[in-house]
Amino acid sequence: MRDGLLALVPIIGIIGVVTGALLQAFFYRKNQKAHHLSELQNSAYSDFLNAASKIAVAQRNNHRNLVTDELSNLADAKSRICVYGDSNVVNHLASFLREGGTLQTEQEILSFTRLCLEIRKSVGMEDKGLISSDISQLLFSVDVKNIKTPSK
After folding, report:
1. What's the CA dihedral at 136, 140, 141, 146 to 10 degrees?
2. Has residue 95 got a pLDDT over 90?
3. Which positions ≥6 away from 85 have C-beta within 8 Å?
4. Distance of CA 28 to the CA centre of its chain
């Protein structure tokens, strides 16, 4: 009986090592998948913001050729947001586009500002104390006053 127990000890050790290795591999793959999705989201968000900003500046300066060039980048970023983006970001992006999506009116600026705040939230940024007029000032040098950014 004692010989049986001695033979069982290495088997239990091997089972423990194999189980630990399998669990480690499982959690590593799960973490890598989440990390890759996060990278894809961040890339889509930043590419969208970059293209939208370039288009807005080019429109104000009457650089039609730059607008045309950036529209393909904007379309690419929007499609990646649709695929990889957080559902709330997709909803806010659609709202911005329904408003006109040109950043020419106060309503469009507010909608874009809400989209930026939602992107911040989706990547884990806390927005305590951050107000829409600060965002609009940073992005557009325009203070949208007396209008609190609604949260959905």
Report:
1. -30
2. yes
3. 41, 44, 45, 93, 122
4. 22
Q: Mind listing the pLDDT tens digit for each residue in 3-27? A: 777 778 888 888 998 999 899 988 8
Q: What sign does the CA torsion over 120, 146, 144, 102 have?
A: positive
Q: Return the number of other C-beta atoms located less than 10 Å from residue 30's C-beta.
A: 10
Q: How many residues does the chain have?
A: 152
Unique residue bearing structure tokens 């890339």: 43
What's the Cα-to-Cα distance from 114 to each of 2, 32, 91, 92, rounded to whole Å?
71, 30, 11, 7
User: pLDDT-based confidence at 152, cuts 50/70/90?
Assistant: very low
Burial 31-64 (b: 16+ CB within 10 A, else e): eeeeeeeeeebeebbebbbebbebbbebbeeeee
Beta-carbon contacts of 143 under 8 Å, excluding residues fewer than 6 positions away, are 133, 136, 137
Q: Which two three-digit tokens encode residue 2?
A: 């004692």
Q: How far apart are CA 149 and CA 110, in angstroms?
A: 8
